[in-house]
Amino acid sequence: MRSSIVKKLLCCGAKSFPSESSSDDAVPEGHVRVNVGKDIVCKFEMEANYLNHPLFENLLRLSEEEFGYSYDGALRIVCDIDLFQYLLHLLKTSNPSAHYMELPDLISKFYSSNATHLPADQ
Questions:
Q1: What are its GO biological-process terms (predicted)?
Q2: Where exactly are the structural domains of the chain?
C-alpha cells in the first residue's frame, strides 16, 4: 500500500510543483526533482516510479515527519546524500537485493560496505 505522501505526489503530478527555475531547467517527463541532505542539500532528478519503492516511501515518511508536506518545488528527502545515491544505484541496476531490504538493512549495508561499489560519476 502506498504511503499518503506518495499518493499526494502522484495525485498532483511532478510537473505541478512550483518551480523558480527557467523552462530550460524543466524536469523531464516521468521524473521528479528531489532535494537530498540534512545540512548540505544536493538536487537530483530521478524516475518518478522509484517513489513507489518501499525504501523511498520510508525515506519520504521520515522526511515528512521532519519537514511536513511543504517542499518548495521539489521533494525533500533528509538522509545522507551518498546513501541516497546508493539506493538510486541499486534501483537503476535492478539489483534484486533492493526489493527485499528494509530501510535499516539498507543503511547498515551501505555503511558496512563503505559504498566502494558506487561508480565515480555518481
A1: response to auxin
A2: 4-15+30-113
> What is the C-alpha to C-alpha distance for residues 25 and 18, in angstroms, rounded to an integer?
12
**What region, left, alpha or beta, does residue 37 occupy, with left being phi > 0 and alpha being psi -120 to 50 degrees?**
left
CA dihedral 34, 26, 51, 8 (to 10 degrees): 90
Please answer whether residues 80 and 36 qualify as being in contact, where contact means their C-beta atoms are separated by less than 8 angstroms.
no
End-to-end CA distance of the chain: 30
Mean pLDDT, the chain, whole residue set: 76
Q: How much is the pLDDT for 82?
A: 93
pTM for this structure?
A: 0.69
> Which amino acid type is present at position 92?
K
pLDDT classification of 9: cutoffs 50, 70, 90: very low
- Strands 75-77 and 42-47, how do they pair? unpaired
The region of weakest confidence among 1-10, 44-53, 57-66 is 1-10
